[in-house]
Design brief:
Pfam families: MepB-like. This is MepB protein. It comes from Enterococcus quebecensis. This protein is α+β, with helices and mostly antiparallel strands and about 160 residues long. The protein has a single domain, classed as Trna Endonuclease, Chain: A, domain 1 (3-Layer(aba) Sandwich). The protein is built from four helices and eleven strands. β2 and β3 form a beta hairpin. The mean pLDDT is about 90.
Amino acid sequence: MKSMDYLASIIQKISDWPLTDIKLEEQNKEYEATTFSLANRSFRSRRGKKTTKKLGYFVVFWEKDAELKNKPYDFYSAPDKLIVTIFDENKIGQFIFPKKLLAEKNILNYGKNKGKMALRVYPDWVTGLNKIASTTQKWQSPFFIDLTNNWDLQLLKKLYFS
């Protein structure tokens, strides 16, 4: 999987810890869905998909409940971070979202919030957004790193490990 291979190359540069407990999430495999652990932290990884009708990149994250119905991830069982890797022609980037933020943005099932089963992400290079998408890009921006031309290793460490 391209996104996990890329992620593993990043980890080699920013950590002495190995990736462990790597598991493919079959229900979302078209998004290269994976969970893993690193340095006592848990992660969920996805590859964002470019769509033809809307700007940005689409990503899903859901699981099956006891009745085998799709449901959003739950805050209490969610990994510490969600990583969304973007490959778009010559552009590459990653979003590294902490689960607390995902709960605050009503993406994880938490308290009275039912959560969402998908999300659209907007790297800094996406322009011409409508007001709602622009607002979303604004809160996502601090958790995005453009990896197209070089890697800011300090920022990567901060996003992965803080």
